[in-house]
Amino acid sequence: MPHPSPFLQPGSVATPDSLAILHLKRDLSTPTILRDYDDEGIGYAEGKVTTTRYGNYPHITLIGQPWGSQIKASKVDTGTRGRVGLHAERGQKRKRGGSSSSRRDESVAADQEAGTGERAVEAAESKGTKAAVPADSGFCHLLPPTPEIWTASLPHRTQVVYTPDYSYILQRIRAMPGTSVIEAGAGSGSFTHAAARAVFDGYPPNAIANGHDDAQAKIPSPKHHRSSEGTGK
After folding, report:
1. Taking a C-beta distance cutoff of 8 angstroms, is the pair 181, 199 a contact?
2. Would you say 192 and 183 are in contact if contact means Cβ atoms under 8 Å apart?
3. Are 110 and 85 in contact (CB under 8 A)?
4. Residue 227: CA atoms inside 13 Å, Cβ hemisphere, count?
5. Which residues contact 3 (CB under 8 A, 6 or more apart)?
6. Whole-model pTM above 0.85?
7. CA 69 to CA 136: how far, in whole Å?
8. Cα 195 to chain center, whole Å?
9. What local confidence, expressed as pLDDT, does residue 70 receive?
10. Distance CA 214, CA 60 (A)
11. How high is the pLDDT of residue 223?
């Protein structure tokens, strides 16, 4: 059974391993995959952190929060001294020629044992990981992904099918619940998410919007997002 797509069934609260949108201001949003452990091995003491010009947001402060919540930024030491694990050991590795891969695996494995919400904070404290401390300023709104928000959050470095365009296309092809859509050239997935919602009939396996892209440079991005969002192939 495929994992429900947050675009189609986001639930009432943000959960680990799901896509979320951090709305920072009217024309600036940042998508992120929520994790209750440091999956990137960056080494922040608070675990995985999304850093923005409007503040830093540890994921332990996002997971378990209702969609639409206003989340205060946290004080995070983003310098090398504030990190642990892989990135903090790189300087020492250059000096002694040692390897930090085993330490990174141990750090990630330990972080994966932590739960969500308050349990994640308690587990982090018990393991010596720094709990999030609210900053004096900065906040974001935690939003569930929708095709419109996803399109607005995309970097405009590539051609994007915007909301008026895919709305017109879906109307012209008469996309409706229960039908199937095949897209050639998925790119950023803007049209793909809108098409999946248009054909969604309440049963996730029946919402089929297949996207294909021959451009090697674009394949990793839509494939990564679709695999974590459950919107198709």
Report:
1. yes
2. yes
3. no
4. 6
5. 230
6. no
7. 18
8. 21
9. 97
10. 37
11. 42
